[in-house]
Design brief:
The chain is mainly α and 283 residues long. The chain contains 14 helices and no strands.
């Protein structure tokens, strides 16, 4: 059995090849949509028995499938709930200790989903038990990015192209245009729009999705140039990054914010992602 499990592990070289891909994507997509009520329920349901600890150890062993990706997912979960764990914001209402326990249940579910090919049925069930008690069915195939999700995705997809600007004339021209816009924008108006969109994210329970979008965008623009492996981290890059992240987050909550405020943050990046106004039938 041990030899068979090692063979399975070696054969899975990418997430797309994983035989348990559907469950993995379902768990990961649910994470940014965990509500405060879900957090409390997960914390109540999680229990660390000897059997669960042994199953966790097997799931996170070096030979487990894509274990490096599992650890990266753990880090991402921690960042999405950083404010909840700190407990120093007015909108954080749960005891950070409760959140900490809930995240243990979440990490166990992620580990179980990835390691399913090498776990016994009982081990997988034990690690998933708390998660499935709260989320018995898969609710998402990917995170819900709001009413203008297509534009959010398009922006996040376009951002890595800017990382090639040192060897791509078109990317360099687009970057310079965005940079000029960033320098000439009314900072006070932009800050007001940013505050309003963040408040909307809190009120609509999308603040963790907001964090996910900003994290994804930061990673996208921070990629190495595929030609020279250079990843600039200067003030100009930071300004363009802030412009793109503000636009992505404004699109995320566009249904909960005045259109004029959304336009303040999204119009500067229309050269990357042309605005897609809803049709009369969609209003």
């Amino acid at each position: 059995m041990g030899i068979l499990r090692r063979a399975i592990s070696v054969s899975i070289s990418s997430l797309e090849e994983h035989p348990n891909l559907t469950e993995i994507l379902g768990v990961l997509a649910q994470v940014p949509h965990i509500t405060d009520g879900d957090v409390a329920s997960l914390a109540r349901a999680w229990h660390n028995t000897i059997y669960v600890a042994d199953a966790r150890g097997r799931a996170l062993a070096p030979e487990s499938p894509l274990v490096t990706e599992v650890l990266a997912a753990f880090e991402a979960v921690q960042s999405l709930f950083a404010e909840d764990l700190a407990g120093d914001r007015s909108y954080v209402t749960l005891d950070p200790k409760i959140t900490s326990i809930a995240l243990k249940a979440t990490r166990d579910a992620i580990a179980a989903a990835y390691a399913r090919p090498i776990l016994t049925r009982g081990e997988h069930a034990a690690l998933m038990r708390a998660w499935r008690s709260v989320f018995p069915t898969q609710n998402f195939e990917e995170p819900d990015l709001g009413p203008r999700a297509a534009e959010v995705k398009a922006l996040l997809t376009a951002m890595p192209l800017l990382a090639q600007r040192c060897h791509d004339a078109d990317a360099a021209a687009t970057f310079e245009s965005l940079l000029r816009t960033a320098w000439t924008m009314d900072d006070d108006m932009r800050e007001t729009a940013r505050r309003e969109t963040w408040a909307a994210a809190v009120l609509t329970s999308r603040r963790r999705v907001w964090t996910l979008v900003r994290r994804s965008g930061t990673e996208a623009l921070g990629r190495f140039c595929p030609t020279c492996r250079h990843a600039p981290a200067d003030e100009d890059t930071a300004r363009v990054l802030a412009l793109c992240l503000d636009a992505a987050c404004a699109l995320l909550v566009a249904d909960a914010v005045d259109d004029n405020l959304t336009d303040v943050l999204t119009m500067p990046i229309e050269q990357l992602v042309p605005a897609q106004r809803p049709s009369i039938d969609e209003l």
